[in-house]
Amino acid sequence: MYILKNAFRSINRSKGRNILIGIIITVIACSATIGLSIMNAASKVIESSKSKYDITATIGIDRDKMMKNVDSSSESKENMKERFNSMASISVSDIESYGDSKYVSSYYYTYSVGLNSDTIDAAETQSKGPGGNPHGQSSTSFTLTGYSSYEAMEEFITGAYTITEGEISSNFSDNSCIINSELATLNNLTVGDTIVLTNPNDTSKTYELIISGIYSDNDTDTMNMFTNSVNTIITNSNFVEQIVSDDATLNAKITPTFILTSEDVVDSFEQELYDKGLDETYSVNTNLDQLSSETESIQNLATFAFTTLIIILVIGGIILFIINLINVRERKYEIGVLRTIGMKKTSVISQFVSELLIVSVISLILGGFIGSMLSVPTANKLLEQEIQSSEQAQANINEHFGRSMNGADENSKQEKPSNMPTKGVSKIEKVTSIDAAIDIKVLSELIGIGILLTLVSSLAACISISRFSPLTILKERS
Amino acid sequence: MSILRLENVSYKYEDDKKYVLKDINYDFEKGRTYAIKGKSGSGKTTLLSLLSGLEKCSEGKILYNNQDLNKFDLDKYRNTNIGIIFQSFNLLTSLTAIENVILSMDINHQKEKNKREKAIELLKSVGLTEKQGDRRILKLSGGEQQRVAIARSLSYNPDIILADEPTGNLDFETENEIMAIFDTLAHKQNKCVIIVTHSANVAKKADVVYELKKTSQN
Ligand SMILES: Nc1ncnc2c1ncn2[C@@H]1O[C@H](COP(=O)(O)OP(=O)(O)OP(=O)(O)O)[C@@H](O)[C@H]1O
Ligand SMILES: [Mg+2]
To answer: pLDDT tens digit string along A242-295?
Structure first.
């Protein structure tokens, strides 16, 4: 106990030096707290941002690979076209087989087919039918696109399309459809009307659809022929599947999207698809790049905070180390006296380390407090932006679908269909509760770092104390 | 019976060929004062550091109560069995006289409640007042400081007092006063007092005088 008493007395005696050490440690603790809480906040933001977006994989034709194949196997143009056609078709059963994987949490797809109509007129556009019909089949006026679930309705989620009247049916196996507002105006159609589409190969085959809603394409200024949606009629994938299964010669296109369980399984999933018989000319594309670009700036901030933290710790450690060395040199005589009158080396060392620890702990608490005062507003601002963007995303989705999609709203639970998209909805809830207040993790990290730094920097002092010969010290004095 | 005995003690500093001390055979008993005389550089301080366990002999051995000193915990030995007094006093100048004495008691792990009372008593026994005891060391004269050093060395009631030129910095009168204290310690309190000195006056007052000769080359 007398060692602690000595330590306290000694601190009190050399106030100047200890205040200096205290200031240095306070500054280190303060910067460390700021760095740590920014890193913490950043990782929360990244986490929340990652959980908000699903990792999705799509299958597309790898044009480079295909071209290479064509070059090497000097095929005729006809053969090539045939090949292309055969490859372009992935069947629903293929998708079901691909989706039946431990790496896939869910999947959806859109199914498009080109059809005509005798009862309604198509709007004038530069293109006719899906992709201007490159396969040499008869051209069609309308594209009937079937979605397998709300999640598949990418355009509504991103806000490219917005429901202006009626709604999207929650029943994914009925014969309801939604049509473009321009098409509705042109043909004087409203919600509840029926439209009839015909098979381009066999006009006796007709398909009846009831309009449940009207959507507007917000991308109006792009007269891009591939994205123009005026003649796109939206329904569910089951409806399209029935049409196609009835007539396999129809020009249909299926686009699957697989939601993966985590970003770590991307490679395994890709391999599994090829093992299950996916042609080598297809490539599996993910949205990983897009996701990481979303979090890039915040990731940079975290890295910057981390680097700064390390630099401060190293510089602070060196300064403390030097102060300790000077301290021991200055107090050689005291060490000599203490050793001569029988104080053990270990006791002398513990007294010196205690002195530094007492000053450190006080400074750590002070620095941690100041640091959190400074960093909480900064970190909270970071989080606030994330929370706002999440809430905005939520609000937008509701608006685009023309109804509340909020899964967390207990009252609307009954109305909510089971296949309502959860994308960016339920997960956003977590984000709103994040607060950057100094938490136990940051605090314990800080104290750990501080004590480690203190001990490491006093190591040299301990070594020199244990090497001192008291006799030599005392002789130097006299 | 001797409390401290040197048997054929030789000593040379590390990396040094020359012996500072060669085949020393001294015997110290309780209740007596000893003076160790010798020219400057003859190894007096070196001998004292061997007796106090700050250094170990190169050859031969030192017996404390007939037991080899090397077998002792020397830190504890210095803070229990011997009291050390140096020419330069070696007090902690940032503390008061009383605090210096209490520190020594603390290192000795004394459980006593009223250490301050005991420290004042010790200081009084060497002729200092309580008021002087509450002063910082640097506010005391050389003679007073040396009294504090003696009081400190008595704080754990050791059998042996080792003093290296305790009066080297003091005037003749003060020297006599300090020597009177040592005399009392040996003859009234039955301690073994060993004093290293230049002074003929001090040597004259000692019961036994040993003379250290400079060792010849090698
Ligand atoms: N640490 C050391 N390393 C090497 N030689 C030393 C060391 N300390 C002392 N010596 C040498 O040992 C010899 C004896 O030194 P010591 O200090 O014991 O002399 P002394 O008798 O106390 O002299 P003085 O009366 O001047 O105090 C001297 O020649 C000195 O140079
Ligand atoms: Mg000497």
So the answer is: 888 888 778 788 888 888 888 888 888 888 888 888 887 888 888 887 777 777
Cα(B31) to centroid(ligand 1), Å:
29
Ligand nearest to the CA of B164: 2
Q: Would an 8 Å CB–CB cutoff place A338 in contact with chain B?
A: yes
Both tokens of A224, joined, read 């891009």
Assign A80 a pLDDT band (cuts: 50, 70, 90): low
Min mean pLDDT across A351-355, A410-414, A446-450, B132-136 is at A410-414
| pLDDT of the residue at A241 | 87
Q: Does B100 lie in the same domain as B37?
A: no
Residues A130 and A143: beta-carbon distance below 8 Å = yes
Residues of chain A neighbouring B54 (CB-CB closer than 8 A): 340, 469-471
In a domain, B182, yes or no: yes
Cross-strand partners of B196: B36, B164
pLDDT at position A139 over 70: yes
Question: Has residue B87 been placed in a domain?
Answer: no
**Same domain, yes or no, for B63 and B102?**
no
Q: Do B5 and B77 fall within a single domain?
A: yes
A42 and A59 both lie in a single domain? no
* ipTM score for this prediction: 0.88
* pLDDT higher than threshold 80 for residue A399: no
Residue from A3, A332, A333, A341 whose CB has the most chain B CBs within 10 Å, to mutate: A341
B168 lines ligand 1 (CB under 6 A): no
Between CA A224 and CA A226 the distance in angstroms is 5
Stated as kind and residue range, the H or E segment containing A474 is: helix A470-477
Residues near B124 by Cβ (< 8 Å), separated by ≥ 6?
A: B130
Q: Nearest CB to A471: which of B49, B79, B95? A: B49
Rounded to 10 degrees, what is the CA torsion of A128, A134, A138, A142? -30
Q: How far is the CA of B140 from the centre of ligand 2 (A)?
A: 24
Chain B: which residues have CB within 8 Å of chain A?
45, 49, 52, 54-55, 75-80, 84, 86-88, 90-92, 94-95, 103-104, 106-108, 152
- The residue whose CA is least distant from atom 24 of ligand 1 is B40
User: Is any atom of ligand 1 closer than 6 Å to the C-beta of B46?
Assistant: yes
Q: Which of A127-136, A241-250, A305-314 has the highest mean pLDDT?
A: A305-314
pLDDT digits (tens, 9 = 90+) for A434-460: 455 556 777 787 788 888 888 888 887
Q: Between helices A15-52 and A345-401, what is the axis angle to 10°? A: 30
CA dihedral A319, A322, A327, A333 (to 10 degrees): 180
For residues B2 and B73, membership in a common domain is answered with yes
Q: Quick one: A457 and A318 in the same domain?
A: yes
DSSP structure class, residue B96: B
pTM above 0.90, yes or no: no
Other C-beta atoms closer than 10 Å to the C-beta of B85 total 24
Contact B31, B187 (CB under 8 A): yes
Count Cα neighbours of A456 within 13 Å in the Cβ-side half-sphere: 12
Examine the domain organization and report whether B31 and B96 are in the same domain: no
Q: How many domains does chain B have?
A: 2
What count of other Cβ atoms lies within 10 Å of the Cβ of residue B180? 12
Could you tell me the two tokens for A470? 């008291």
Domain identity same for B111 and B216: no
Q: Give the residue, by CA position, lying nearest to ligand 1 atom 18.
A: B43
Q: Are B51 and B2 in contact (CB under 8 A)?
A: no
Look at residues B109, B132, B157 and tell me which one is the last residue of a structural domain: B157
* Domain assignment of residue B132, given as a range: 92-157
